[in-house]
Amino acid sequence: xxxSALFRRAIPAGAEITRWHASDGWALRRFDWPAEAGKARGSxxxxxxRGDIFEKYLESFAHWHALGWSITAFDWxxxxxxxxxxxxPHCGHVRDFGIYIDDLRGFYADWAPAAxxxxxxxxxxxxxxxxxxxxxxxxxxxDAAVLVAPMLxxxxxxxxxIGELAARLMTKIGDPARxxxxxxxxxxxxxxxxxxLTHDHARYEDELWWQTAKPELMLGxxxxxxxxxxxxxxxxxxxxxxxxxxxxxxxMLIAEADGLVDAKAAIALAGKLPDAELIRFGPESxxxxxxxxxxxxxxxxxxxxxxxxxxVPPA
Length: 315
Description:
By secondary structure, this protein is of the alpha/beta class. 34% of the residues lie in helices and 15% in strands. Strands 1-2-4-3-5-6-7-8 form an 8-stranded mixed sheet, with helices on both faces. It is globular.
């Protein structure tokens, strides 16, 4: 068993889980795993996707920690251990994605001055969208960024325009904070949740283990308002003219067969960035590239390590 696999179902002894308070007093659950003394390579701020908890990425954290990186993460407001924004604790709701950006801006402003450089931000799925939006809007200013299966468009059979219109209509005829569907990552009867996320059954079972160990951290489907905001925020970001002026070096890992986010939208957006590298995976990868079977995951980690070595040399 690889050393990193030892951390998949246990918080590392050197890590600490605390609370960080936003400007309005809201408490967000925070994870910090400092690099070992004398081995500091830099600092990573890693942000997961909708419904994620940072425990899902402990195996990858262990990989980077072994290379000397300090690792920090927090659960987005309204999910994980960072409270809820809906009366239904299983509903992933937010009124406005700007709330996420405000939290990211405030957290980064507190984290960056004390974080040993170089500083790199990572974002998976919704986290990738919010990291890129934070970069474009000047909310964060790291030395480099890595986006993994970023949510730069939603995968929908009706297309983004009709999808957004339908979601907006549903917020008008009922509670916007209600569940958009009953279960799973999307309203589909032909794909299981596991097949949407990973081909690695053992890694999928790790998430189920955490669901049993810490059921209070788990989330279900999004609200209709979350969907409206996801469609609107990704639409605005794709059209943002500031993308062409974004100078932070960026690595983007895309799963072309992704069933949750629009890989084609991400690839098209990457072409608007002046300093972006694009790594594409085929049918061998589902949405959670860093929790995929070893051939995919190992390649993804190797590409990330190469990128960090070439673009953010040690301070």
